Amino acid sequence: MTAGGGRHAPERTCVQCGKTGGKPSLLRIAGRPGSGWEPDPDRRKPGRGIYLCRSSECVGRFTGRIRTAKGAARWKMGVEGSMLADKVSAWWAAESDRNAGGVDG
Asked: Which residues constitute the domain of residue 80?
């Protein structure tokens, strides 16, 4: 419990920029080395999670990074790094389209 009597809300850290925030403010990428990684926007899939800001800069930097052998090796993704980059890019495009459709102009 916190000093104010409320429940403590855990914070997560973006792997790109280091910004911290609550789980809903970040995209979770779930997986286990050797068994696959994928975006987990509902934060319910089993396995280890890495978190990423919901910003075009962080998404772009992350997808570019994991397309390289060195970047994919950071999270033991192997050849799956490029596939995950495609999945995250597709998720980001769909998320951007969804958010753009709900904005009054």
From this structure: 11-97
